[in-house]
Amino acid sequence: MMSKNYDVKDISLAEGGRQRIDWAYREMPVVGLIRERFMKEKPLNTIRIAGCLHITTETANLAITLKAGGAELVLCASNPLSTQDDVAAALVEYDIPTYAIKGEDDKTYYDHILATLDHKPNITIDDGADLVSTIHTRKTELIKNIIGGAEETTTGIIRLRSMHKAGELKYPVIAINDADTKHLFDNRYGTGQSTMDGITRATNILWAGKKVVVCGYGWCGHGVAMRAKAMGAYVIVVEVEPVRALEAVMDGFQVMPLLEASQTGDIFITVTGDKNVIDEHHLKLMKDGAILANSGHFNAEINIPALEKMSKGKKTIRSFVEEYSLKDGRSLYLLGEGRLINLAAAEGHPASVMDMSFANQALCAEYMVKNKGKLETKVHEVPVEIDKEVARLKLRAMGVEIDTLTAEQEKYLSSWEEGT
Ligand SMILES: NC(=O)c1ccc[n+]([C@@H]2O[C@H](COP(=O)([O-])OP(=O)(O)OC[C@H]3O[C@@H](n4cnc5c(N)ncnc54)[C@H](O)[C@@H]3O)[C@@H](O)[C@H]2O)c1
Predict the structure, then answer these.
(1) CA angle, 305 as apex, 300 and 311 as ends, to 5°?
(2) Can you give the C-alpha Rg of the chain in angstroms?
(3) From ligand 1's centre to the CA of 273, what distance in Å?
(4) What share of the chain is helix, strand, coil (3-state, %, to 5)?
(5) Is the pLDDT confidence value at 1 over 60?
(6) Model confidence over 291-325: pLDDT tens digits?
(7) For ligand 1, what atom is nearest to the CA of residue 272?
(8) Which of 110, 287, 288, 331 has the fewest CB atoms within 10 Å, i.e. the most exposed one?
(9) Which of the listed residues 272, 277, 299 should we mutate to test ligand 1's pocket, taking the one with most ligand atoms within 8 A of CB?
């Protein structure tokens, strides 16, 4: 049990955090519109919300918006390395209890989750399903008061679907990631840009002319491959799923097994949500000086224990760059301890895409409260009206107008009689 109702690195960082939260808010007009409405309507009055999210300026804006809607909020980090300490401090000043310190060890990470759950939430918001899994294994007495949960990321949804399949999921959860206005933008453009940003900030490498191996061609992989190519890199894609591999080929990337790519790559980036994608037999083949980074949810994508075992020593070369000196004389460089590099070494996604992801979060929290007791215990899609509304609001905020169907077209598109 924490002695105070927050645990942050240094509360005196709050002012800087507040300024950066305001800066991000300028790029979050959809969340802004929702906040204005929430302030008037208070749809979340007296609802206790626990969020296990990356503690960034964008998350702070979501939290402030939920609070404006009447919710009592508490936050902890969804990754030990993704917290922005100035933002955590500022959140405490906004009267939002926050338990998050960048670089916290595994024990502190879970102590922070437990401290967050001491607030007995009615709604959980996860990025990776750690709140849901902790509640279902160690805090089952909380389930009776929970209306529902929301899950931000692909890996969390995979975990929740497998819990549901095993009959273990005990309250409804909404899969925010599966909204079009989330993964098509956040996973693709957000992860694409911020992964390049993280690796660039950590290493200051020149991308032009580098051989970049992207493992996984899902939405995150699409973004990373596209942005690396745009920077002049020669991109190789590694996949296990035939349709996605084919798409990568036709998008103009070279596709090959990782064993082959291991021999030529300069930089390896994993974005699969899978385990030991880069394994010992790949590490053995890599060129001296190869750089390894992960932008998938967990630090399991690169087999770090195997890398440790192959090494005779390691040292920190610069922030977020660890040199592993292998027994065979080569050096491999691991970035950000294999944790999602866009959040470890940079600031995560730009606010403009989180605007859409977190608009879905805020509207789904409202939806869960409106439908309290009516949602089946399973993993739900984001209601399509919410998804479309987020797109409409974003377009409006960007000053983009679109056409509408004429009555004749609506009739034509919903009928089958007319042919050639
Ligand atoms: N860094 C971030 O800020 C951020 C943002 C969004 C999502 N994520 C995380 O990134 C990961 C990927 O998300 P996504 O939405 O792109 O998922 P996705 O399911 O769309 O794509 C993952 C791809 O990886 C492929 N894959 C799986 N195992 C593989 C292997 N061994 N070798 C090669 N390819 C393999 C799959 O076939 C799939 O095409 C997840 O863990 C997700 O939670 C991170």
Answers:
(1) 135
(2) 22
(3) 4
(4) 45, 15, 35
(5) no
(6) 999 999 999 999 999 999 999 999 999 999 999 99
(7) 24
(8) 288
(9) 272
Question: Which band of pLDDT confidence, cut at 50, 70 and 90, is reported for residue 420?
Answer: confident
Answering whether pTM is above 0.85, one says yes
What is d(CA 35, CA 37) in angstroms, rounded to the nearest whole number? 5
Contact status, residue 290 vs residue 268, Cβ threshold 8 Å? yes
Q: List the strands of the sheet with 98-99, edge to edge.
A: 98-99, 72-77, 48-53, 123-126, 148-151, 173-175, 379-381
Could you identify the atom of ligand 1 that is nearest to the CA of residue 273?
A: 41
pLDDT digits (tens, 9 = 90+) for 163-184: 999 999 999 999 999 999 999 9
CA-closest residue to ligand 1 atom 18: 218
Report helix angle 351-370 to 14-25, nearest 10. Answer: 90
Angle between helices 14-25 and 57-68 (to 10 degrees): 80
- Are 185 and 355 spatial neighbours (Cβ–Cβ below 8 Å)? no
The Å distance, Cα 238 to ligand 1 centre, comes to 12
Could you tell me the two tokens for 53? 């999210």
With bands split at pLDDT 50, 70 and 90, how would you rate the model's confidence at 3?
Answer: low
Task: State the distance from the centre of ligand 1 to the C-alpha of 179, rounded, in angstroms.
Answer: 16
* Residue 169, token pair as written in the block: 């999921």
Please give the structure tokens belonging to residue 68: 């404006």
Q: Would you give the DSSP letter of residue 218? A: S
Mean of the per-residue pLDDT values of the chain: 97
Distance 354 CA to ligand 1 centre (A): 18
Q: 276 CA distance to ligand 1 centroid (A)?
A: 13
- Residue 234 CA to residue 373 CA, distance in Å, equals 52
Q: Residue type at 199?
A: I
Tell me how far the alpha carbon of residue 47 lies from the centroid of ligand 1, in angstroms.
33
Helix (H) or strand (E) holding 415: none
Question: Which amino acid appears at position 274 of this protein?
Answer: D
pLDDT band at 4 (very low <50, low <70, confident <90, very high): confident
